[in-house]
Design goal:
The protein is of the alpha+beta class. 23% of the residues lie in helices and 17% in strands. The two termini are 16 Å apart.
Length: 416
């Protein structure tokens, strides 16, 4: 892909909540109705169903192949790693406890009694298989690097080491031991990430390129929900996993996930009651919703929006051209006149809010890499283009920009 420039800003979730206090997976939500069954005078609870718009059809929901937030939203409801973030806190999940060696290199996890959605036990061997699968170069996992902290992991992925040299080992059905290359204080939190979530070898064997994960007949999961239906381009149905170790804490019976791409259509569906929750709205609707809709909220999210240059083809194989195009973007104008939802202009990949080893904001410490995030540096950009052989843009070739399909991505692309 050839991109016209690199643009970074802090994304903001636009969330419409029909019911307050929603916890997708382990909380209360949805609408209930009392009813009478078989002449019994005792009211019975109707199904608790959450209707949610994902906006798109995920490329994959295979935990080791996924690299997108839409796929992650589904995966996080289907699967569970050794640890899980709940209510903002990292808590034991598939692992009931763990120990760390004195040299901070060896982690031993002790698994709780947990089962897959078909009733079979979750074992340490499932985790060993999964992590080595992610590192297997033939799997081609885009997020394999997340496991390079494990001794022998990077070497196996790069073809200079063997699978058996990867230091993750099931000592028995309930004990998993990992040795790292260097002390990694955040390794525990990494085990909550979707690439680390277990899959079962017999399920994976049921379909190539992650197709098994979208097939309810093949897919098994160990999280709060199980896959009941997947209709490409239409919807996904997730049903409560009765074998989940905390099934009694899961208040929803079903998640009905839709793939409505158009934001206006999605908002209309929400306002008519056909959707319970949406996480994005048309930019032009924000003033009205802020003024009129008490269910509308703007919440911060740590994220970075950027374009990637193709550095293998001209003219963006020239660092002077890349620098010039980057400097020519007015980031402040973009967030104030295009996105208009509280996003922040940024000059680096790491957004504000993340601390470095000394407890300082990493974004502030790293700086903006010479970028003025308040305005475009047009004159400097012109000088660099001239130095690259394109004075005043003369003879500058046409370049192609690819962007995600949605109204806001289109608006940003057109502005740039």
């Amino acid at each position: 892909m050839t991109a016209v420039a690199r643009y970074v800003n802090l994304e903001v979730f636009l969330i419409l909540l029909l019911i307050a206090g929603l916890t997708a997976g382990c909380g209360t939500s949805g609408t209930t109705e009392a009813g009478i069954e078989n002449g019994d005078s005792k009211p019975t609870r109707a199904e608790m169903i959450l209707k949610w718009n994902l906006h798109t059809d995920p490329k994959t929901i295979d935990p080791q192949l996924n690299s997108a937030s839409d796929g992650a939203d589904i995966i996080n409801n289907l699967y569970e790693g050794l640890m899980r973030y709940t209510g903002g806190e990292l808590r034991p999940a598939m692992a009931s406890r763990y120990t760390i060696s004195e040299d901070l290199l060896t982690y031993t996890f002790y698994l709780r009694d947990a089962r897959w959605s078909d009733g079979k036990p979750v074992t340490a061997l499932d985790f060993e298989y999964t992590w080595k699968r992610a590192l297997d170069p033939t799997t081609a996992s885009e997020y394999a690097f997340q496991l390079f902290y494990i001794k022998g992991g990077q070497e196996y992925f790069e073809g200079t080491g063997a699978k058996d040299d990867v230091a993750v080992k099931a000592l028995d059905d309930k004990t998993l031991q990992i040795t790292l290359t260097t002390p990694t204080p955040y390794f525990i939190s990494l085990t909550s990430f979707f690439t680390y979530m277990p899959v079962r070898s017999d399920a994976v064997a049921g379909g190539t390129d992650g197709s098994w994960a979208k097939n309810p007949r093949m897919a098994v999961s160990n999280g709060p929900f199980k896959l009941a239906e997947y209709v490409t381009g239409s919807h996904i149905t997730l049903e409560k996993n009765d074998y989940y170790w905390q099934a009694d804490q899961v208040k929803l019976d079903r998640l009905q996930v839709y793939m409505i791409v158009d934001l206006s259509t999605s908002l209309t569906a929400y306002e008519s009651g056909d959707l319970d929750i949406i996480d994005n709205v048309p930019v032009q609707e924000i003033p009205r919703l802020l003024a009129e809709d008490p269910t509308f909220s703007i919440l911060p999210m740590l994220g970075t929006y950027y374009y990637i240059f193709n550095v293998t083809r001209p003219p963006t194989n020239d660092v002077l051209v890349r620098r010039a195009l980057t400097l020519a973007i007015d980031r402040k104008a973009l967030v104030q006149t295009i996105t208009k939802a509280g996003q922040l202009p940024a000059g680096g990949m790491v957004p504000p809010g993340l601390k470095d080893a000394n407890g300082h904001d990493f974004n502030r410490t790293a700086g903006n890499h010479g970028l003025d995030v308040e305005r475009a540096s047009i004159e400097e950009a012109r000088k660099l283009l001239a130095e690259a052989g394109y004075p005043d843009g003369k003879d500058f070739p046409e370049i192609v920009l690819l962007y995600n399909t949605s109204d806001i991505h289109k608006a940003v692309a057109e502005a740039i």
